[in-house]
Amino acid sequence: MGFVVAVQDISHSDFELKEVQSIIDEKPLLNKEMLALSDWLARYVFSYRIQVIQAMLPNAFKAKYLKGLKIVGQLSDDIKKQFFLDKDEINFLPEQYDSRQLQLLNQLISQGKVVQTTTIAKKNRAKTVKVLSNALSEQQLTDLLNEKGHREAQKKILAFLQQHTDDHFQTKELAEILDISPASLTTAEKKGWLTAKQMPVTRNPVHAISVAKSQAIALNPDQEKVFQQVAQAIDNQKQETFLLEGITGSGKTEVYLQLIERTIAQGRNAILLVPEIALTPQMIRRVKARFSDAVALIHSGLSDGQRLDQWEEIRQGQIKIVIGTRSAIFAPLDNIGLIIIDEEHESNYKQEDNPRYHARDVALWRARFHGAVTLLGSATPSLESRARAQRGLFTLLRMDHRAVSGAMLPTVSIVDMREVWQKEHADSDFSPDLLDAVKQRIAAQEQTILLLNRRGYSSFVMCRNCGYVPHCPNCNLSLTLHMDSHALKCHYCGYETAIPTKCPVCGSSQIRYVGSGTEKIEAKLQALIPNVRIARLDQDTTRKKGSLEKILRDFGQQKYDVLLGTQMVAKGLDFPEVTLVGVLNADTGLNLPDYRSGEKTFDLLTQVAGRSGRSGKKGDVIIQTFNPDNYAIQYAAKQDYEGFYRKEMSLRHLADYSPYFYTLQIAVDGPDQFMASQAIDAVADFIKGRLAQQTIMLGPTPKAIAKLRNRYYFQIILKYKKDDNLEGTLRDLQSVFSERLPHDIYLSIDRDPVSF
Ligand code: ADP
Ligand code: ZN
Ligand code: ZN
């Protein structure tokens, strides 16, 4: 299967040309915009166009067409045998057949004996399911609600029906939402409160979500000012990019919703991106409550069938608002007036595999195409975006107060874990301050969020006595522990040193390996506070479909005292009863071998701190750290983004990093370490002489993950300025090396890599 992107007369070609055997889609899958986008993006991210197109389309398209042939006419046994057919459907995998067979197949198609079947959707269409919906009039409902003596479950049902007069639910689903037994629903059905009917199984993930309708909130003056400025650009169909720097809880989402409303009123459509799947349930609820049905959801947690259906609905023009994660930026939505990227600083917006695109770049391209407004929102904008606003490329908007009246930013205290370890026993994960605070919240029936900032592969060594972590003398980045070679290595420049037996700062010999996961911490906390009810939120506990929603819903209904998790707990969550946030180890992120580690730490701490005290009850945040003086932790404790921005910019300036220089990574990987290392040397030789004078080249060195799935990885980092004309050199590199490299060695180029 391939894609026809253009038709040209060619009399001669250097490539082997093939004929188009048959055409699958009568109507093109990709419109003009998408074709142009794929062309631009492929070049921009140094990828193949086919990879970009595949990233744009739902997965199901592969399955759909590979299975899509059906016999309708009479076929001889001979032919059936040839295609291994005992049923009347062919599992059509072109590579199973030789060209003669394919020719025969095409003949059968043209004779009408075989047809192409379309979507998988058709196969499932027959299925139906029983759903329940309200059977009572408004008056009956009011009367029933006024009657005394209903059982608890019955009260819940009536209250729910009042909110959801027109919706329908499956029994199991509704029982779960209301936290009652399915039997109570059967009783209600017998009483005539509910009617049951059969409905086709819907593969629409938005439809299944139930919400009470909500009204627009009157904006406060901060919000109003932002709203007016962006709304004006929307009205004028002016292509403009806004950066909204709004503290946590300042009411950014409410502004988004009202701007979307304005866009729709103008007859145009909107895309709203969130950085991860965990944030989609909450966002889709808030959007659906306002806009009911013209909403589509796209993220990688959906089944192939759901994604396909959503994609088709969007393409057919039934959708006005698309919500989703990174890949939703490719939604085939037309007539776009507004693109919002919430938490725009999040690194999840960058795809780490081919094609290595950033959703923000795609958004800006599409906004230009449609004459649309782009709104980037964050409490902690990326340095790149904030610097662009500084230079006037983006319009900077700010909201500095919490939206709920009386709600203040929480009080943040830093606990120096070095002292705790000296006074208490070393190795304790919980300081007495934090433990006491958690106990107080349990007693007051308030809630706590605990963050264990432990991410990624990297581990490091640290002096237990003074908190010292060894850094590279050339790059000032923390060194990574390599157990196999028993050494500390710098992943940027290749510097290498032995693991110290004594701390060079304080002389202590208590050097230790750092790392402790959420599961272990959960067990420890349970032992320390036996009556605490803990919900754990991490990749392990959310693997099952629907489990994320359930954990968050149960926490929202105060079935738990503590929500303990990885960075998943840090972002976007809005729970009014949370008045304490504890960060168990703020240092983990600081010691990643990454020039952005300060920024990432600041972002994460500021975001998680923002979960506390959102409803008007006073909130506290306790940050445990071995580096209480670190600037990122200090600024996060003050929740001072602008201060952090200035400090971090000066550090980036000194070290020639982004946003002063662009960065780009060239990587080579292969199954043989020596060959791969020779290949990266050859790459270095090739580009060295072609770089602009101010372009800086680091490496070659092994990548941070030097060996993965039996392949060895090497890299070169380039730091360059916009006018360095690097693109031409890199394209030459790609075309020369695609021939020169052995077939099992890959060359890849990553523009603006998230980490090296
Ligand atoms: P952010 O996205 O900036 O973190 P949210 O949009 O989640 O903030 O708003 C935080 C809380 O403030 C929410 O509970 C929201 O309903 C409430 N809120 C937003 N705007 C207003 C307003 N104008 N008046 C009262 N409450 C508001
Ligand atoms: Zn020390
Ligand atoms: Zn180094």
Q: What would a concise description of this structure say?
A:
By secondary structure, this protein is an alpha/beta fold.
Secondary-structure map:
Blueprint: H1 32-44, H2 49-56, H3 60-66, E1 69-71, H4 77-82, E2 89-90, H5 99-110, E3 114-116, H6 121-124, E4 128-134, H7 138-146, H8 152-163, E5 168-169, H9 171-178, H10 182-190, E6 194-200, H11 221-235, E7 240-246, H12 252-265, E8 269-273, H13 280-291, E9 295-298, H14 304-315, E10 321-324, E11 336-342, H15 359-370, E12 373-378, H16 383-390, E13 395-399, E14 411-416, H17 417-423, H18 432-443, E15 447-451, E16 461-463, E17 480-482, E18 487-489, E19 496-498, E20 511-513, H19 518-528, E21 534-537, H20 547-556, E22 562-565, E23 578-583, H21 597-609, E24 620-625, H22 631-638, H23 641-654, E25 662-670, H24 673-688, E26 696-708, E27 711-720, H25 726-740, E28 746-751
Parallel strand pairs: 7-12, 7-13, 8-10, 8-11, 9-10, 11-12, 14-24, 15-22, 15-23, 21-22, 23-24
Antiparallel strand pairs: 1-2, 1-3, 4-5, 4-6, 16-20, 17-18, 18-19, 25-27, 25-28, 26-27
Helix pairs in contact: 1-2, 7-8, 11-12, 21-22, 22-23
InterPro entries: DEAD/DEAH_box_helicase_dom, Helicase_ATP-bd, Helicase_C-like, P-loop_NTPase, PriA, PriA_3primeBD, PriA_3primeBD_sf, PriA_C
Enzyme class: isomerase
Cofactor: Zn(2+)
